[in-house]
Amino acid sequence: MNKFLLLSFAAFAFFFSCKKDTFITSGDAQVGFSSDSVFFDTVFTSTGSVTQAIKVFNLNDQKIILSNIKLAGGSNSPFKINIDGAAGPSSNDIEMKANDSLYIFVTVKIDPTVANLPFLLYDSIQVAFNGNSRYIQLQAWGQNAHFLKNELIKGDVVWPNDLPYVISGGLVIDTGAVLSIQKGCKIYFHANAPFAVNGTLQVNGEKDENSKVYFLSDRLDDPYNGYPGSWPGIYFGAESVDNMLEYGVIKNAYQAVAVEGPALNANPKVILNECVIDNIYDAGILGAQTSIRARNCLITNCGKNILLGYGGNYDFSYCTVGSYSNDYIQHKQPVLILSNYIDEGNGPVTSSLIANFTNCIFWGDDGSLDDEVAVYRQGDSVFNINFSNVLWKVKTIPDGVQTSAMIQNEDPLFIDINNQKRTYDFHLKKESPAVGKGKDIGINFDLEANPRPASQTDLGCYQTQ
Fold first, then answer.
1. Domains of the chain, each with CATH number or no CATH
2. Using one digit for the tens of pLDDT, what is the confidence trace for 151-165?
3. Whole-structure pTM over 0.70, yes or no?
4. Residue 102 pLDDT more than 70?
């Protein structure tokens, strides 16, 4: 019996040894990584060179051949790899023992002074085996910039336009603090980086393109630079006061401007002068029982361009608000939605709503909407909504609103709308029905600082020249 057991053990050991020496060729084979992504977050103030290591594991009890490990960007990539001592960008037929591992060393070399370099550089390492492919994602900061992570602004802070600002993790203006952003600043937000304003935000842009202040996603590479919802947006909290954005451009956010709660003084909580809000996944402007004043603003191609709920006090003049369905956002919601209530528990809770819209355009197309302005009312709270000298796409005029000198369901004739190419020019053609139909309200310039003649002022944010 003991002899039999001894022979059985020897046979088992021989079999197990032979198994470890054979190669697994099944598609069910498993390969693991110490990490499925590598991020180089060094602040590059001169030419930077950093190395990180990734470990590749053979998780099988048999040998395996990795048919290929390669850098997707090849020799042109800013990343370089070394595969267990062999220089990349690729290596073939790599044999790994059962339960063994190997190293891939990754280096990135960047000259941050190159002006057209993206802020984030991307590549990937492909590991191919038994008909399968696994990927390790590579990211690195590209340009030199102010890199801020989980930043809290306290006191009075001024941002100059010496370098761009790249925000990850989030940016918060503390209660009582003031952040002043100088003309020409460009602020880029990572996908995990909301901008929360509990104090005061002052954006001091000017009319020239290089003097405006830009709030954008840090994904500047195609096709990601066109994706809406690429960063959370700017949120003005209940304690925030005296916010003003002049010549600000906000693009590709989830919600561009979200404002909560009444103003704590006689001023509007948020003033938007000559601002552009574009390609926003959810709401371009979201107001909840608050106060917003907007002048010469362009608010376009958002899931919901303007949503003002639970009452508040609003004044919009010379604004162009338009949406067209495209590959990224389907136009399914009215471009302007107003309500004086929210639904809570046992029913609606109302608040007074005062809203004035003067010399504006509200238009949408390539959707199924007859009414681009929707108004909802509950209860008996103050409800005062006025539209004056407005061109809108509306089949049925909402109940409870006052109107004068309206242009209804006439195409505003924007200069160029091309959904396939995603190019939009919301200037008015000279034959537009909106030309010369505004009334003088003391604003003698447009979004581009062109003059508006008092007697022949156009509707919307642009005056024809």
1. 31-141 (2.60.40.10), 146-428 (2.160.20)
2. 999 999 999 999 889
3. yes
4. yes
